[in-house]
Amino acid sequence: MYLHLGGDVLIKKDKVVAIIDLETAAKSHSFDKLITNLEHKKLNYVAEPGKEKTLIITNNEYYLSPISSTTLYKRSFFDIGGLV
Predict the structure, then answer these.
(1) Which of 30, 28, 16, 7 is closest to 77 using CA atoms?
(2) Rounded CA gap, 55 and 80, in Å?
(3) Residue 28 CB coordination number (10 Å)
(4) Among 6, 11, 19, 74, which residue is least crowded by beta carbons within 10 Å?
């Protein structure tokens, strides 16, 4: 199944490694190191600049989404027909 990240971006649920809330993570010192490392990799911007709420890490890509981590987490457990 797929997870909608915002806009027209869908990713396969089984490819998701982590869903990280940017506001909470920004308080962590280790998050600064992660962001520095990600700057050297390609980030896929789903959100408009300044509207990013969540970092989604997949097997080989990184996404910045305007949708809250809580909403994405809940979506990851539901399918069109109900619970997966």
Answers:
(1) 16
(2) 24
(3) 11
(4) 74
